[in-house]
Amino acid sequence: MKLLGTIHDLLERHLALIGEEDVRQDALRYLRGLKSLLAIPVDMTSRNAIPLEDHVSLRVERAVAVTRSRQIADARRVHQSAVGVFGWDNYDDIN
Fold it and tell me: 72, 37 in Cβ contact below 8 A?
């Protein structure tokens, strides 16, 4: 997770230097995916959250989960297309 945090911070700082709008949008999608990954607690057993059982909180949790999943999927697509540019998209070719 520390590496993802470093990538996130570097990309966030670099974002202002990106001039092409389509490249900037790809970077923003990737950044949102990284933010979603970093927001997920690593150790799910030691959370100090109070469990809320009402219907509204369950709907909010589901909505957040769907949004995070979409953002992570967008980041994965951006990452895979960037890796594919360098011809690294096939692991068997590396070994």
Answer: yes
